[in-house]
Amino acid sequence: MGLEYWLKGDIPPGPIKATVITDISRVAEIIKKNIGQIAIFVGPAIKDVEDIIGDVVSHIAELSIAINAPIITSDSNIVKKLSDIGFKNYIILFPLEMVRKISREELKQYRLLIFIGHRYAYQWLLLNHIKHYRPDIQTLSLDPYSQPNATWTLPPLPLALWYKNFLQLIEMIKISIEKK
Question: At a CB cut-off of 8 Å and minimum separation 6, what does 141 contact?
């Protein structure tokens, strides 16, 4: 009898690794396919990106409005920015608490979770937990670095190129939704 590792959620990425998507139109297709069943996790590390590039939270809010998805965050600065721009579709919930609720099937309405702005190691652990305890939920990392535990991830990119692609993604989704 072979040994079986009993800590199911405590293993490295293993055989199931993220698909790296280099074409931003493919990311738009994935998001459009799941409209109505999406939640966007925004972490406090988005502030580090904003220090270099500029306002990213308002663009995340644009994406959220376009796909009718709530923004889930626990960061008071993000909540303040969202309130300042008049955005109300947010939930204040710690990431670990949200992941636990998803793994316990307390939140069944989400089929795609979009992660952006979390520290790499913390996001790695959150995605690893979801991947092993709720394999039916798909995850998408929109950060400027690859995330091996997500279902889909963007390639590692310089911030300027990542930001350009992120804005292009929002425009592609808005245009495709307006056509309907």
Answer: 18, 114, 115, 116, 123, 127, 147, 150, 152, 153, 154
Q: Which two tokens stand for residue 6?
A: 């009993």
Looking up tokens 């800590």 gives: 7
Name the DSSP letter for residue 154: P
Instruction: Convert the pLDDT of each residue in 62-80 to its tens digit.
Output: 999 999 999 999 999 999 9
Q: Which token pair is 138?
A: 């798909």
CA distances to 89, 110, 123, 155 from 106, in Å: 19, 10, 21, 32
Rounded distance, CA 126 to CA 103, Å?
11
Going from the N-terminus, what domains does the chain have, and what CATH number goes with each?
19-179 (3.40.50.1220)
